[in-house]
């Protein structure tokens, strides 16, 4: 069987080959397909592997210990019923826990044993916990054998010896091949191998993504704590300095700022007036053109009064100077 593993990189293809041939991968595929369950069709001279050649399929409860290495006869009675039977020479028999890979003993009914069940019924016995499902709507009647066989020697170790090659050499196309007597079993193993491999790759990517998300979450939590600390410090500072909330009082700040700007311009105008008045008084002799302080908003009574008197005195001086001139007109007297 051939398939394109994709990716195109030598490292990925090499990794895929190593994983395909690993024991861990073989265990995962065997567990997925429950290949330790053997289906047997009795023949006149020898028995054959009847995997997917029976009208039923057996699903084992992997959390339970199953009867190990003992053939059980399964007889399809009709479209709804089956009969299981075997014989036991003692009250206990060998069992195997496929989940934990350990051998155990299980209690069994001594002597001949036979019992009927329904298709799809959960068979819950001390030595056998399975479900037998039909493989189609209409099935044939007949008898077959099945057993729970070796997990390692005849199953995992066999399949981990899968042959893999690159076709052509150096490409991302892998050729997988197995040898065995049941072709359908080999096809299922190879197909499930690729599924398991892709699933493992996805799980690793998901694990990396989860780890990345956890790291980001931890970073965000740390930043959140830092922000909360800064927020608390700001609140403490606001309480100590009697600051108002910047958001709710933003318009008040703008209004106050505008008022401060107006006051600043007013004060600057007053300063300019005082400087101009000082320069005028120092450098001029005619004070009649002095601008009134009230024009620039100076309401100080002493300043306004002094400027008014200064202007009045300056005007009086001008009149007297004019009167003292030789060409000034005489003032008639009666």
Mean pLDDT score, rounded? 81
Question: What percentage of the residues does DSSP assign to strands (E)?
Answer: 15-25%
User: SSE order, as H and E?
Assistant: EHHEEEEEEEEEEEEHEEHHH
Measured as a percent range, the helix fraction is 40-55%
Overall tally of domains: 2
What's the number of extended β-strand segments? Answer: 15
Number of helices: 6
- Strand numbers in spatial order across the main sheet: 3-2-13-6-7-10
Dominant shape: rod-shaped
Q: Kindly provide the radius of gyration, computed on alpha-carbon positions and rounded to a whole number of angstroms.
A: 53 Å
N/C terminus separation: 148 Å
**Helix/strand/pairing category:** alpha+beta
Low-confidence stretches: none
For the largest beta-sheet, the strand count, sense and barrel status come to: 6 strands, antiparallel
Organism: Nonlabens ulvanivorans (Persicivirga ulvanivorans)
Protein name: Tyrosine-protein kinase Wzc
EC number: 2.7.10.2
Keywords: Coiled coil, Kinase, Transferase
